Amino acid sequence: MPSASLPMMKPAREPETGRSAAKSKSQLQDDSIMGTNNSSIVSKRSVERLYFPDEAHFFRYFVKKPQRRSPLINRGYWVRMKAIDQVVRQFLEQDSPKQKVVVNLGCGYDPLPWQCLERYPAASNGTKFIDIDYRDLMLKKRTVVQSTNELNSMLTGAKVSENDVLFTSDQYIQLGCDLRDLQALGRVLASVIDIENCTILFTAEVSITYMNVEASDALIHWASRLTEARFCVLEQLIPDGEDHPFSRTMMAHFGKLRTVLGAVQKYPTEKAQFSRFTGLGWPKVQVCNLWKLWNSPTFATPEERTALDQVEPFDEWEEFALFGCHYFLLVADSANMATRAVASSISESQRSNNLEKSTDSTLPARSGLQPELIFSEYPKNHGYKRFAASMPVKGPDHSRDMIGVFAGMGLNTRTDSMDKYSVDEIDFQVLNPRGPAVTPSSRMCHTITDMGDTSLLVGGRTSPDNASRECWLYHKWLSTWERLDDLPWPLYRHQATRLNSEYVLVSTGRIDSRTVSTDFLVWNRRKGWVRCSSENPPRPSYGAVFFSNKIADVGDNSSSRRGFLAGGMSTSSSFLDDVWQWKLNEFNTQAPTIHFTRLPSFEDKHLVARFGANVVCIQDKFYIIGGVIKDRIIKLAEEVCVLSINSTSISVESIPLGFTPRPLLIGSTTVAFDQSLVITGGSAVCFSFGTFWNKGSYTVLLPSLEKAKSQEEMRPSEVLRLIQTVAAETPCKTTESRISTESVTLNSVPRVQIGSALEFSRMLESSTPVIIEKADIGPCTAKWTTDYLKEKIGTEREVIVHEASTEHMNFKSKNFSYVTKWFGDFLDQIQQGQMLYLRSLSAEKPSEKAADISRDFPSIAADFVLPPELAVVTENTHSSPLRISGPVNMWLHYDVMANVYCQIKGSKRLLLFPPTDVKHLGFEPGSSSSQLNVFQELHSPRLAGTHPQEALLQPGDVLFLPSLWLHAASPTSGVSIAVNVFFRSLSAGYAAGKDVYGNRDLQAYEKGRIDIAKIVKSFENLPKDVRGFYLQRLLEELRDNI
């Protein structure tokens, strides 16, 4: 982001020597602030490349290495850039007899002058653009301008000097000066423009906030005394206290960077900023947070919003709303400046009045309920999910109910596991299912609706453009899943509500990132999916609050239900705050009809009209939890509200809860358990500041609605806590119609000795595993005892290891944790039999660089060498991780790069399968790991049709593993030590970009998966039998080419 103009550094022409050359604390902070500019312009360059393909690009000249940012960051910066552009454009286009001047305070490398000259040439004619920032930064910017023809050719009369005025031209000026020295600032400005005869726009996009707040206040006050001026600020807010998880993450981020935000702590809200500017001499002030600005019809048209979705898929609305609520745009005018409402249809007076109401409004009526809230912390690395779905499930003996939370986004990837919560006070455990299981695949943004003895799972997605049609029924007494008929179209971000024990109503939702469904659907086991005819329907939406306010008892044969629909997001990506009542007639027929009635005078609709909220019914009361609302942040006291409905009235009340620690109720799930609300999961990416995860579950113990329970009855034993994670096991995929029951034949990997590089080259060409005996891999086989390694590497060297809960590690269910240990403690613990495993990472940048034993462990690297016969490995090495393991098995997986596995101490058993066996071993599309335990299943029918080979490695053995051979490993001694050298055996075709572990699939495969998705999508509007016919033909054609 543009940096602030704080005290300038001493000019380069006055070099410092000795102790005086050491940077002061202030100078170090200045460097940190300038560093924020580097991150900001890379993000803006990402937006420029993606969203403005038809415009001239100017950030490109200041960003040497472009990076594609995430959709959330791209859209956030798009709003920031458009907000500033809109203010500047309106300033340029307004009539004025005076010369217009645009002064960018803390400009960084922002190319605003060139963008204006290119976009608005007529309006920019005669305007002076002035950039002000640190002298050192401005000198670098000047060099870029001078050396770039595309920039300097747009300027005339260019001159360079070495005083505070570094660069001048007829259109553009560069100043390097101290914004705290207002006398000097005024003098320098007066030297390049006639201030009294100019109308001046000052812009400060996340810049002066880094200044000392007294200094930035003085600057604002100084500017207010100019004859004709406008001041535009875009900065951060803290709209609901520093304990709000987004605010806390944001402030911690800037604190870590040593770029503390000065203004936001003194002026945390829109109202405070409004008062700040009016108090500092600006009589006309407009202020608006960016989430409210996004929803303004004059900021972006529906066509503009829709066009954004065509550029890249986007489904981070809750996180985008949080970002927008934490930034504001303020425009202040001096008394002589002609004022226009900026980026809003609301006039200045209405804006200030609304500001009073929206920022410090009195809270809605509070419920008389006095619930007790208890927090239960998660076991390490477990329970962390967002956009999952929950349901009641049965305990192991069926005597006590539990809560199951299925799928969702985990810490690193989508999961297909189920977390189980219970009041039982037992130790947490990770369980694998017994035997084959048929389960839904990993997904998020799906729904699960409780129907009594069963629960209905509908839809969900992997990515915003890869939604699922699947529907599953969970049988609670059997703890099994059953696949049902698919939806008529893929669906996610929908809602589902139970009508009775046999029928479910499903709302509209997203089909993909550009399409919203328009029909409501009724599901029944016998009838399948039936579309509803709609009367007076609202605009199609997704993510809304949707529920039926009467759930029939078993035996209720009435065919009508009533309910509510509120909030949600429209097809043009604007927030909807309408509240609707609906009535569904004849839902148990083939022609159900749903009629909608809008409730225009619904009070406190902001509590009900939400996006991404949970709705739970307990004793005819409807509890609405979390999500986001239109225009502003949900305050802590409003996070949970209760809706009461009777024949004559509808009322909504907030339930203030003293959450400790304060959660972020985004992507969380809520389910009723007796008289309690159980809130699990929840997380959000806090823009570019980091990710916040709720670190436990919350049980909200509600008093009985007939009479309040005594405090003694609300025992801690009623609190639900996470006790199990059950991994879902996907059945092995096969194209065979009949699976053989014959046992597999286990062959041994051949053992050879080689004497030349030519012999190894022939091994490479054969592409089959071989154990090379008696290879000279250096003195490591004799030296590398645990005591020797402690001495050479150091007992207090920190290493990241896998800490397993069972002897078989499962990458999909994550039945292990990544923990940091001292190297000495790690070696002691594996000698004691603890289930730990080290696969070394790069010591410098583990997320960017591959492991290299010579660089990561230089004190022992000389002990290990590859023999000259393996020169091709040495010459094409990708990585060389050190592996040290206790009694724990490595999961079945494949590596895209070939490798040699050098056993140094201890012994190990590996099971290997040729690449052609992949279809039998449970590898999901796009995954290089399987959760099948091949050591356990080796002689079971599940491995029928496979061709396993066994490698038993002793110290000094070198196993050649060709590319794509599937393998799992198990130590056969107490401690196993090995070095694994990965190398490139293909001349081309590897995945583009970083591949730290050497297992990213080939570029052609990734492209092929995209092509398959496109092919399948092209058939989606055809009848199911026609679609199946042609896809089967294409499948056979593909097989013919294998």
Task: Describe the model.
- By secondary structure, the chain is α+β, with helices and mostly antiparallel strands.
- The protein has four domains: 71-357, Vaccinia Virus protein VP39 (Rossmann fold); 374-726, 6 Propeller (Neuraminidase); 747-986, Sandwich (Jelly Rolls), CATH 2.60.120.650; 1007-1040.
- Helix content is 24%, strand content 26%.
- The strands form 13 sheets. Strands 45, 46, 47, 48, 49, 50, 51, 53, 56 and 58 form a ten-stranded mixed beta sheet that branches. Strands 3-4-5-2-1-6-7-9-8 form a nine-stranded mixed beta sheet, sandwiched between helices. Strands 11-12-13-43-14 form a five-stranded mixed beta sheet, with no helix packed on it.
- Helix 1 (25-51) crosses helix 2.
- The longest helix is centred in the N-terminal third of the chain and has 27 residues, at 25-51.
- Mean pLDDT is 87; it is low at 1-22, 343-353, 356-362, 705-716 and 730-741.
- This is tRNA wybutosine-synthesizing protein 4.
Low-pLDDT residue spans:
1-22, 343-353, 356-362, 705-716, 730-741
Number of strands: 58
Query: Assembly state here?
Result: single chain
CATH architecture of the largest domain: 6 Propeller
Please identify the top-level CATH class of the largest domain: Mainly Beta
| First-residue to last-residue Cα separation | 51 Å
% residues in beta strands: 25-35%
Structural class: alpha+beta
